[in-house]
Design goal:
homodimer, about 230 residues, alpha+beta, Nucleoside Triphosphate Pyrophosphohydrolase, Arc Repressor Mutant, subunit A, 7-stranded mixed sheet, two-stranded antiparallel sheet, DNA-binding
Amino acid sequence: MEVKLPTFDSVFSIDCVIFGFEAGELKILLIERNEEPFKDWLALPGYIVEQDESIDNAAERILYELTGLRDLHMQQFHTFGEVNRHPQGRVITVAYYALIRINGQKEVKPVTQYAKSAFWHPVNDLPKLAFDHSEIFTTGFNKIKRRLNYQPIAFELLPEKFTLTQLQSLYEAVMNKKLDKRNFRKKMLSYGFLKELDEKQKGVSYRAAKLYKFDRRKYTKIFQNDLIADKAGV
Amino acid sequence: MEVKLPTFDSVFSIDCVIFGFEAGELKILLIERNEEPFKDWLALPGYIVEQDESIDNAAERILYELTGLRDLHMQQFHTFGEVNRHPQGRVITVAYYALIRINGQKEVKPVTQYAKSAFWHPVNDLPKLAFDHSEIFTTGFNKIKRRLNYQPIAFELLPEKFTLTQLQSLYEAVMNKKLDKRNFRKKMLSYGFLKELDEKQKGVSYRAAKLYKFDRRKYTKIFQNDLIADKAGV
DNA sequence: ATATAGTGTGTCAGATTTACACCATTAAAT
DNA sequence: ATTTAATGGTGTAAATCTGACACACTATAT
């Protein structure tokens, strides 16, 4: 069964690669599609941009409708414009990523009928995705891998208060390699934008680690000279 | 006089920021528009994407039509999708940059009527541009500033054979700061991807400098481990 | 009390980065 | 022939950063 697209000459869409970090694993949000084409396939959350909304606003709206998530800091990273990337017509898609704290989020679930479900899936074991979404994911993943080294994006994935070990294991998960504990701590602390709290980790059956917090004010003060304002997050 | 846009529901366009280096200055290509809106204004080369061409192909075609330049390595860098960025309707534009050798290029000139003329203009002294093109330029400029430090893009701006002083002055022009000559040379040569030629500079009234050539084969060999394949040029 | 599991810490060697100044070469001017 | 003007080309030492590496401490569970 084929459902016709609206009769636009050109259609824009947004696709979102939403990263989260849980149980030591990096994950992304997928949805199960409820519409042709690719009905029942897994896909990145994405949909068509309306005439009267900016693409940044569209990205927020669409993500909300498909997953129930709001107020993420979405960042555009690439636009995919092959002629035949959509089987039913010409659809150019602008891809966005965002990083969020999974813990403490209410469960993700679609608020429209376009998706049957939404869920977190580890990036290391992704199934085949609808359209060219596997390629979109890979491009986005490479982007954040690089960005991790010069932008404070790690902190968006962690709870507000975190231990240095958690921070390290996030870096290890994204970069997919082991880091030296002492060197990692020395370096992170040397930047001066981590604030040591008077609190300790709770509920562990071993020596509790100190908790830290990312101090964005200090970060921008320290790095303001290096920062080149740029739509694409530098 | 207002010319109506074609009755697309949505229109895609491409805008190009084409960098060149001449007389120690970084320049970009501008056109003088020959159509409403913004008739007679200066603008980035840009036009509408056809239904049956990928955006990458469209970028090449459009640049050719407006400037006569062909076969540049165009790189997408950002998509601009504010609702009112175009006064006559909804136009989302994908911005590309490219770097080229000005010297030795035949003169740039439009092959369609959409532009009256095309010419190089120093980036340090840009006039107000049509649409949001000033913003597009700035975003693109910041992109290449960063990229200069981890991608071999400088060599695309220089003639095939160049002196180390030329290379340095290009870096200085892009980064807008002075570099130390000895350190710059030591570092560049240490990478091992510059090939020293048996030739010297000609036609100067002082000691002629050695000429070098960028060896792309060596470059990729040396850096293949660091490279993360990525649509956006890493 | 002791076993367990993860926390938290310092040093040294090697590599990289930065700062810094003078003689060499060429063509043009005298 | 000599001088001048302009740029080419080179080395070293100090400071900083990076990477490798191992063990005692602490909180809890039993």
